[in-house]
Design brief:
Elements lengths: L10 H14 L12 H8 L3 H13 L3 E4 L3 E4 L3 H28 L3 H12 L4
Antiparallel strand pairs: 1-2
Helix pairs in contact: 1-3, 2-3
């Protein structure tokens, strides 16, 4: 979901993440046609250049490809690429900090694993 009032994240990144999420969640699969720039512009009422910037990044990274005169499509291996990127970001953003903080607090690896298991078992 795009949130134009979210000043913490540029709209082109929100557009990019929207499409990425649809691919990772299997709402868009390899070979499927992605929403067009015009559809996104009309639906979210945002600037055409903003939408194009987000989509162009996905094309440049090989997540989407263009079929001239037809539209954008999900590239082969796009989901795998996105999952690998997100796993790396997860490690960089969360796991590394978790391990560093655990070391400061003297929490053992086994205790970390137990904390994760008990946290996952919680009703959210």
């Amino acid at each position: 979901m795009i949130n134009p009032s979210d000043s913490t994240k540029p709209l082109f990144l929100q557009i990019r993440e929207l499409i990425e999420d649809q691919i990772v969640n299997d709402q868009l699969q390899e070979g499927d046609q992605a929403p067009s720039t015009n559809q996104l512009v009309n639906f979210y009422k945002i600037n055409h250049a903003t939408v194009s910037k987000g989509i162009t990044q996905l094309v440049d990274e090989g997540i989407l490809y263009k079929k001239r005169g037809i539209g954008m499509f999900v590239a082969e291996g796009a989901k795998h690429t996105l999952v690998q990127q997100r796993k790396k970001a997860f490690v960089d953003n969360y796991v590394t900090r978790l391990v560093q903080e655990a070391e400061k607090l003297g929490i053992t690896e086994l205790e970390i694993i137990e904390l994760i298991k008990s946290t996952k078992g919680r009703d959210v």
